[in-house]
Amino acid sequence: MFYGGTGCFHRRKVIYGVPPPDTVKHEMKGSPSYKELQAKFGSSKELIESSRNIISGDLLARPTVDLSSRVEMAKQVGDCNYEAGTCWGQEIGWVYGSMTEDILTGLRIHAAGWESALLDTEPPAFLGCAPTGGPASLTQFKRWATGLLEILISQNSPILGTIFRRLQLRQCLAYLIVEAWPVRAPFELCYALLGPFCLLTNQSFLPTASDEGFRIPAALFLTYHIYHLMEYKECGLSVRAWWNNHRMQRITSASAWLLAFLTVILKTLGLSETVFEVTRKESSTSSDGGAGTDEADPGLFTFDSAPVFIPVTVLSMLNIVALAVAAWRAVVGAAAGVHGGPGIGEFVCCGWIVLCFWPFVRGLVSRGKYGIPWSVRVKAGLIVAAFVHICTRN
């Protein structure tokens, strides 16, 4: 198990940086001194005493207190400047240094040797809210992917935690599955551009339908999607749920993950800094409890002028243009008796991308919040024109 930020309880001694009982460090007898605790937890006497009891395991030593008398102490500890000069954010509490502090905190806990336990209740014990619509959801995915990639290439990488600390191999693999999200973006972008490039340049990268080798990519394509569809059906989910999640993964990879990858690369090169982008929770009802007339339809994709929408808009327009050019070329070539060029595989690749990006295709002809803003369309159109010019200049 690994901690992903939702539906999790942490023991206080774990949050306080106490190692597991089987480590040598924990076997030291006696509790830390007052000065040691003050350097770690700050100047609050009440917090120091409470942390001393937690660390030493002397839970019965805590007296019963009146919570109302602790208001001033809570204000002191909750002050933004309280943690200055302490170990908060480094050795204790939430770990700073990443936009996904939950993953980083869980990674620190597991790297110290602690183990997690899964409690699966029926009904579920935790139900949360997530951003709806395009702008909020893609912004949140970009923030997550940025933080995950920052962890992957930092000294807190799960690979280093497995080699030099106590992170188990299976835990390392679990963290890598999530933290490798943005690394997939440039590769998926290349595959998304390969189809239209071949259609525009009248080339092919797949065997033709008459070749026996065509069965291999066709079998891989069908097997992959049928297998995932069967997984959804076994979990009691519908075909529509599978299709929505599949195309959202393609959209997220080509937009949020791609921008997160570029953001971290620029930060690593010292050319920019990452910025925490706040996302708001959107409600489907109005404040008076009735249906809101100005709220977005949850079944439709919404857009704004954020840069995160440009890559997918480019790919949508580019694949439509490539399909149109290749179809016209095929018709003219068939009439003239000219054969060759791209085959059915390249057409299927471009058509599949158009289907996956259908919310953006629909956004190109829609208006309002359901339509792609003209600023995004113009920028995407210029990029598409440049790509088409490069492909057809010879």
Please tell me the overall pLDDT: 84
Briefly note the structural class of the backbone. mainly alpha
State the major sheet. Answer: none
- The residue fraction in helices comes out at 40-55%
- What is the 3D form? elongated
N to C succession of SSEs: HHHHHHHHHHHHHHH
Whole-number radius of gyration? Answer: 27 Å
Calculate the terminal CA-CA distance, rounded to whole Å: 55 Å
Helical stretch tally: 15
Strand content: under 5%
Total number of beta strands: 0
Task: Give the low-confidence spans.
Answer: 284-293
Main location: membrane
Subcellular location: Endomembrane system
Organism: Aegilops tauschii subsp. strangulata (Goatgrass)
GO biological process, one term: cellulose biosynthetic process
Which helices and strands appear, and what pairs or packs with what?
Blueprint: H1 12-15, H2 34-41, H3 45-56, H4 71-78, H5 101-111, H6 134-152, H7 158-164, H8 169-179, H9 184-201, H10 215-234, H11 239-268, H12 310-336, H13 344-356, H14 358-363, H15 374-392
Helix pairs in contact: 2-3, 6-11, 7-8, 9-11, 9-12, 9-13, 10-11, 12-13, 12-15
